[in-house]
User: Fold this.
Amino acid sequence: MSAVARRTLPPLAAVTAAAFLLALLLVLVRLRWAPLESAAHGAAAHLNSLVAGHATVVSVVKVVTWLGSNGVLWTLTGLAVVVLVIRTTMLITPNQDVFRRGGRLRLGLPRRKAADRSDETATVTA
Assistant:
């Protein structure tokens, strides 16, 4: 095994194990596994009892919950798209072009082939 493989294998294994555990947890949640559902309800009840007496904390929790709502997330996604489009159009100046080469989108001036540059090179003959 090469040094590169030995260096990159442990992080790959850790990410794979974490993805597997997350998938397993997702399946258990979707199947409404009783022990997991009971633990979730118990934790929610405990946290609710801690927060219930404090109006300020309840307001903060409501704001945080609202920030995670679909409307806010879609608005932020839309704003990010607009910012990126404006940023991209500002980066493309009139002397630049967006072109495809090798299946990838590239930004910049396209390279000219040697045959296209033949008019620029002069052959000196004596």
The beta strands are 97-101, 104-108. The mean pLDDT is 81. The first strand starts at residue 97 and ends at 101. Helices lie at 3-30, 34-51, 55-67, 70-91.
